[in-house]
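User: Quick sanity check before I run a bigger batch. Here is a single chain. Can you write out its predicted 3D structure?
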Amino acid sequence: MTDSPVAANQLREDLSIDQRLALKTAATRLQSDFADMFGVETIERFLHSSYDQFAGRATVPNFLPLLAERFARQRLHALARVEGKHHDGKPTVLFLCTHNAGRSQMAMGFFTRLAGDAAVAWSGGSEPGDEVNPAAVEAMAERGIDIAHEYPKPWTDEIVQAADVVVTMGCGDACPVFPGRRYEEWILDDPAGLTVDSVRRIRDEIEERVRRLLAELEVPVEA
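Assistant: Done. Predicted structure follows.
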């Protein structure tokens, strides 16, 4: 996926005054955090292109600037890693499925909970949905893991390139392939349209696979 070209100082005429102000505030926060790595133009380009990724399918437009900021922050961290501007040595795993609404979100939830600060997990989809599957949210809540605040998002080149391991779950040929990455394909049922009872089985299999992956990466598991 590529960014839509947006000049750093371009005024978004399609946005409300409140949305423009929110994006300006988000840009200020991102510039504060990434000023030693990237210029203003790069930061604002990533923010605005991240906004565009969600604008066409957002159900609550007021949340768009916040989603754009969160996604831009993740992408800038990834770009810094790819360009050698920042590397904390932590293993980074990217979980990919079609809609980024069920399997990949559950996998990221387990990975983040079990690895703590010792490793990094990201997720994405080839065709992001509108919301995280409510049955997956409920099934994970039963295990004390909250994925309700997550959101379906696409993958981008810099995120894939920054990952040490890319785990794909049913996105087929749409999943990106870059040399030098470790790839795994997890064959799992799609929880879309399933009851919570059915999703529990998928959830438990994902947990087993995540624990196995963490052991292979020699990442200590938190209790």
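The beta strands are 92-97, 120-125, 165-169, 182-185.

User: Great, the batch can go ahead then.
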